[in-house]
Amino acid sequence: MPPPLPKSPPPSLKARFKNAGSLFRQLPGTFRLFWEASPRLGVMLGVLTLVAAVMPAAIAWVGKLIVDGVVAREPVLHLVALEFGLMVGSTAVERSLSLVRELGRANLGNLLNERILHKAMELELRHFEDSDTYDKMQNARREASSRPLGLVMDAFSIVRNLVTLSTYAVLLVSLSPWSVAVLVVASIPAFIAEARLAEEGFRLYSWRAPEGRKLNYLEWILTRDSHVKEVKVFGLGPLVLGRYRALFQKFFQEDRSLALRRMGWGLGLGLVSLGAFYGCYAFVASRASLGTITVGDMVLYLGVFRQGQGAFQGILSSVGSMYEGALFMSNLFAFFDIPTGQEVPRALPARSPPRGHHNAIELRDVSFRYPGKEAWALRHLSLRLEPGEKLALVGENGAGKSTLVKLLLRLYEPTEGDIFYGGVNLKDMDPKDLRSRFGAVFQDFVRYQFNVAENIGLGHVEALEDRPRIVRAAEQGGASTVIEALPSQYDTMLGGWFEKGFELSGGQWQKLGVARAFMREDAEVLILDEPTASIDAESEHALFERFQQLAAERIALVISHRFSTVRMADRIAVLHNGQVEELGSHAELMARGGRYAHLFNLQARGYRD
Ligand SMILES: Nc1ncnc2c1ncn2[C@@H]1O[C@H](COP(=O)(O)OP(=O)(O)OP(=O)(O)O)[C@@H](O)[C@H]1O
């Protein structure tokens, strides 16, 4: 796979050439993808491009024969008919090329989008939490439907124009060999200037990609429904718009300077080409008036020279836009190449503790720090959850509670130490097997813009159609009353994104989230990460009473800042700076008079006074 492009502009000329080289190394990979998307379209594109490339020379040649025939007063109708036929053919070829382009865009765009989604499924949580990888994925998604096809089409357009130019050269050589030399020589400065400016433009765009994303982000703040309340209350509009404007102005200055230079060079070098054209024109016209060449030759010369310059321009602009296409592809290939597979079990075949409710969870001297981070999120943490135990995790923000859950679900692996489930090291288990034993409600649970039944059923995909089970889960999660009041009950479409979607309150959504966790009837472990944050006090109490019954045999891990919830747990672990500072039942910890007792009294006093 080609190496990814450097992020900053290359310093030296040599480095620039290397950079340009790495751009064109994206081509084979892109063609392979196009071929995979549809071999038939690939063949059609190749054949049509070649036919389209030789058509102009054939038409010009027949045009010359017609003029010569007319001057010699010979019959030319058959030649006119031939030219008509060629024009019809040319039009049909152009139309077919447009069709191939359209179909190619759909096929290739679809293939790539699917691959991107597939890759996204393979990625692990650590990738999503890494901004570099996340950026790569968002960039890949944004232009997958247009850029790759653009690159293929640009490459074909260059081939087509090169073939056209060669056929023109053959026609012109017979007429005046040195005019071919003039055509080529007069175009070289324009070629160099265009290539340089295109490269500069490309560097400009790639260089400011992060700022471009910032621009999008500012736009997003002002246009998203989820942001509108804060934008209005804090009066953020003018500030965000001001930042947007400043960034845009910066882009605009750079763009204008590039556009002005492009215009200056384009005009100057255009005049050189025009001068070359008219010099040759004068020469050819005088030869025609002297009778050294025919009038048809002169007409052929004029047409071909003009169109030749057009073809040349075509090549230049294709080279320019290929830079951007290639940049996109290098990004895309880098995204596809992100190594995954760290979730593979260490032991083969993977080990699997017996199903049921007899498995304990044990953390042995676990330390963890996030990739690329210095600070420890968890440090020397040892903890054992007995089968059926309800453990509450408390601690201030950033103490490491959610991190501990991520390690239990093997979304990350401990940096040091080990975690065992039913005596089996998590590293030796298949993560799918492990996760299938958990039911979970997260702090940032998802509000799916699907109907109610699906919102709950997604907790156990295999039972998505099992309505009685969904109804049961809804009752257990305390969501039934909410659902009964909806216009089409379980079939009510939720969320405001689609037509007829019904918007729920934060607490109502949360009840569905809890019900979703209860879909896993055979879950061995339940994780409730702040499940009651937006649930009212009465519902919370009801939920926890039900929860005590339902979780009867299972291990339950509850993270909460509400001590009324926490105190219902068998034991409470107080996390502080990534370590277990206190561990025991509510009564034990209260008697101890440490951090837990302090926090509990603080909250209780708030209610009593
Ligand atoms: N994705 C991440 N990348 C890097 N550091 C992280 C990441 N997530 C959390 N941290 C850091 O790890 C530490 C523990 O965070 P964690 O989210 O586990 O805390 P928490 O106890 O769940 O907090 P809260 O009560 O606010 O939810 C914090 O210092 C935090 O800054």
Automatic annotation (TrEMBL):
<dbReference type="GO" id="GO:0016887">
    <property type="term" value="F:ATP hydrolysis activity"/>
</dbReference>
<dbReference type="InterPro" id="IPR036640">
    <property type="entry name" value="ABC1_TM_sf"/>
</dbReference>
<dbReference type="InterPro" id="IPR003439">
    <property type="entry name" value="ABC_transporter-like_ATP-bd"/>
</dbReference>
<dbReference type="GO" id="GO:0005886">
    <property type="term" value="C:plasma membrane"/>
</dbReference>
<keyword id="KW-1003">Cell membrane</keyword>
<keyword id="KW-1133">Transmembrane helix</keyword>
<feature type="transmembrane region" description="Helical">
    <location>
        <begin position="265"/>
        <end position="284"/>
    </location>
</feature>
<dbReference type="InterPro" id="IPR003593">
    <property type="entry name" value="AAA+_ATPase"/>
</dbReference>
<keyword id="KW-0812">Transmembrane</keyword>
<dbReference type="InterPro" id="IPR011527">
    <property type="entry name" value="ABC1_TM_dom"/>
</dbReference>
<dbReference type="GO" id="GO:0005524">
    <property type="term" value="F:ATP binding"/>
</dbReference>
<keyword id="KW-0813">Transport</keyword>
<feature type="domain" description="ABC transmembrane type-1">
    <location>
        <begin position="43"/>
        <end position="324"/>
    </location>
</feature>
<feature type="transmembrane region" description="Helical">
    <location>
        <begin position="41"/>
        <end position="63"/>
    </location>
</feature>
<dbReference type="GO" id="GO:0034040">
    <property type="term" value="F:ATPase-coupled lipid transmembrane transporter activity"/>
</dbReference>
<dbReference type="InterPro" id="IPR027417">
    <property type="entry name" value="P-loop_NTPase"/>
</dbReference>
<keyword id="KW-0547">Nucleotide-binding</keyword>
<keyword id="KW-0067">ATP-binding</keyword>
<protein>
    <submittedName>
        <fullName>ABC transporter permease</fullName>
    </submittedName>
</protein>
<dbReference type="GO" id="GO:0140359">
    <property type="term" value="F:ABC-type transporter activity"/>
</dbReference>
<keyword id="KW-0472">Membrane</keyword>
<dbReference type="InterPro" id="IPR017871">
    <property type="entry name" value="ABC_transporter-like_CS"/>
</dbReference>
<feature type="domain" description="ABC transporter">
    <location>
        <begin position="361"/>
        <end position="602"/>
    </location>
</feature>
<dbReference type="InterPro" id="IPR039421">
    <property type="entry name" value="Type_1_exporter"/>
</dbReference>
<dbReference type="Pfam" id="PF00005">
    <property type="entry name" value="ABC_tran"/>
</dbReference>
